[in-house]
Amino acid sequence: MMAGVNGEADESPDSRWMSYNELAAARRIATSSAIKLVQRRGWRRQKDNHGTVRALVPPEWSLPARDKEPDPDFAGAIAALEATAAALREQAEAADHAAQVERERADRAEIARRAEYSRGDFLRERIDLLRAQLAGALAAVEAARSEAAEAARAAEAARQNELEWRELSLFARLRRAWRGVSD
What we know:
By secondary structure, this protein is mainly alpha-helical.
């Protein structure tokens, strides 16, 4: 019979209840391998109050496996990975900062673009107003020209009448006045 099989863990006073994750960490194996180990060995299992499945593990199985000793180069590899992660984190932060600067620049450009559109709209409205005022002024000038031409014709007619009146003799003037003719 193998050690720890068929309830042998129940007989050992040093057995401890471990979750699959704890067993995997202690044995330096994957969680799925820890689940298979518990099933293969037939160790007691039960759920705790939080729904986590725990197994009663014999003391010799709660320690790292003899053939699973840490590799001496493992620490160096971890340090290299941590350094690479730190460098990548710095690059990501720099990229985030550059992206934020570009977003701010784009926001400023958008605000400037909207301001220029607003200014263009204002200038178009001002041009339309000035065109309307110019059209009104041109109409007023034309009306004034027309009135001036009419006044000039009336003045010329009055001057002609005045000249004719002066050329008439006193007797002809009186006769015209008597008849009511006022050319």
